[in-house]
Amino acid sequence: MASYDSPELGDRSSPQYGMADEHMSVGRYLATRIPTLKPPMAKAPNPVKLLALLNLQQWLFFLVAFLAWSWDAFDFFTVSLTVSQLSKEFDKRPSQITWGITLVLMFRSVGAIIFGIASDRYGRKWPFVVNNILFIVLELGTGFCNTYSEFLACRALFGIAMGGLYGNAAATALEDCPEAARGILSGMLQQGYAFGYLLATVFARGLVDTTSHGWRPLFWFGACPPVLIIIFRLCLPETKSYIEREAVRKANGNVASTFVAEGKVALKKHWLLLSYLVLLMAGFNFM
User: Fold this and answer.
1) The whole model's pTM is what?
2) How many Å apart are CA 256 and CA 272, to the nearest integer?
3) Nearest by Cα to 214 from 81, 98, 101, 95
4) Cβ count within 10 A of residue 25
5) Closest to 151 in 3D by CA, of 210, 236, 91, 211
6) What is the pLDDT of residues 129-170, one digit of tens each?
7) Is 14 in contact with 32 (CB distance < 8 Å)?
8) How many CB atoms lie within 10 A of CB 210?
9) Distance between CA atoms of 107 and 274, rounded to whole angstroms?
């Protein structure tokens, strides 16, 4: 398979590949999108060969990211699967209980910004660990809530933790792997969300209303696997891509100012693509 910068694929900076010239107007840029709607009809690569490109460490990075994202989804869906029990517990209508879901989604953006900046500044490893510690605390906290206000507060804070995980997990899983395999791996990683939902439904059948504690054991159990995920991540090193990027920052003399300068350049060059991706993910959530 040809690399992204190879002659067979052409120049990455050409309008054909969506990288408009730095001084191109928005109207001109949008006009150049029309030719790209035609599929390139390139031969699809063999997925088995692509996956065979990964070494053991790259597979371990992918696996820890997949497990964390799956359990993130598990924790999110615990409320969806216990709405009726929570309604009875807090003497509220189901529509009031689902505010706990809405708050999670509202605060995900806050977590994405906080942990996104942290993982770019301090590395993938320790923000990932802190993020999972928050999952443990907030799932336990939700399981011990006695009032509706406590429940909403825990779920709002959980939204920050949930929003912080995916970006770090994606970077951990993908940035060290071969470029040719990133497409299929990113698709596999995203399926962790569906896998987490399936796990939540299975464990809900076994843990909800099967003891005198009602819905609470599902949340208590949800706090346990992140302990293993943290241990797994602690056994792995920092990603090579981040180490190389940090070395460049140190070579420039001022790590903090270089980090800020990198952020400014990234926003200036890729704001349009970033806006598109935000709208795309908003559409996914709407559906």
Assistant:
1) 0.81
2) 26
3) 81
4) 10
5) 91
6) 999 999 999 999 999 999 999 999 999 999 999 999 999 999
7) no
8) 12
9) 19
